[in-house]
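Hi R.,

Here's the chain you asked about this morning:
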Amino acid sequence: MPYSLCSVLNACPPCADHRGEKRYCVKTDLLGLQTCVAASQKGGRCSSTQIKSGVYEGRPPCQEGLECSETMGGKCT
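And the predicted structure, written out as tokens:
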């Protein structure tokens, strides 16, 4: 079965770790594509809500040890 570019881009979850860094599946706001990205760093934009098992809406969660603060407009603190 041939694969299209869209089927490859929408291939998550699961996301493979990259150089020892955990990756998360995020559904992009633009076109609704799903892609694997690294967790947000301190002060970065984040989401703590999964829209379905293993998929985050628009932004990834925070790095381990940080919390996604909704009072800060969705930033890692």
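The helical segments are 5-9.

Let me know if you need anything else.
M.
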